[in-house]
Design goal:
By secondary structure, the protein is α+β, with helices and mostly antiparallel strands. It contains five helices and nine strands, in the order ββαααββαβαββββ.
Length: 219
């Protein structure tokens, strides 16, 4: 049956874990877009499903709902609030007035066209972002290289306010591959032609939240 992509245990029962959470897809995602999955044990699938839902509750209120890349997502958020009032309660309790001294997470800053004093913020979900993003990038690398992210391979994720010049050069390289997941997700994968590693990923979620990752082989 193979191994779980996340915990690497031998599978006795196979469940399919969506690389990008199935509930995060927009309602304008074309029918012909494959919602890619990877093999996972039930324990990991359920664990990450709960983390994804919590992260969804925290990210979506921070993103412009009028974006085409967000089509139908805010509606899903309100539906979730209706089904799980505790999430709405958490949001109300943690919503704070935005002030200039606050340092927003890259891509999730104040909305243009609205005065700062009318805007609010919630604490960055630092306990949720790393495990969910690692899960996504692990799934991507397994799907495209059949590679498990364990020794000697290592995954590093980072966020920046301005894209480094070296990354811009790599993204313009002919070895870059764009992978279509529909309007809600953008994935670019770069493998330098002179070596197999490091692999560089750039993902954009809902046209706003940008993450980078590198896959390196330890020497």
């Amino acid at each position: 049956m193979g191994k779980c992509v996340h915990c690497f245990k031998e599978l006795v029962e196979v469940t399919r874990d969506h690389i990008f959470p199935s509930s995060w897809y927009t309602d304008n995602t074309p029918q012909n877009i494959q919602r890619l999955t990877v093999p996972s044990c039930r324990e990991c699938n359920e664990k990450f499903g709960k983390l994804e839902q919590k992260l969804f509750m925290r990210l979506v209120p921070c993103i412009d709902p009028t974006k085409a890349e967000m089509s139908g997502i805010t509606k899903k958020l309100f539906h979730t609030y209706t089904k799980n009032p505790r999430f709405l309660k958490w949001l109300k309790e943690n919503l704070k007035p935005y002030t200039k001294d606050k340092k927003p997470f890259p891509g999730l800053g104040p909305h243009e066209g609205f005065p700062l004093e009318s805007q609010s913020y919630i604490p960055a979900p630092v306990d949720l972002l790393p495990p969910v993003l690692e899960k996504i990038f692990r799934g991507l690398e397994y799907k495209f290289e059949q590679r498990l992210m364990k020794e000697p391979y290592a995954l590093k994720i980072y966020h920046v306010f301005e894209e480094p010049e070296e990354i811009k050069k790599l993204l313009s390289h002919k070895s870059k591959k764009d992978i279509s997941f529909g309007p809600g997700f953008s994935v670019e994968r770069i493998v330098p032609t002179n070596m197999k590693e490091p692999v560089i990923y750039k993902t954009i979620i809902w046209g706003t939240f940008i993450s980078y990752a590198s896959v390196v082989k330890k020497r």
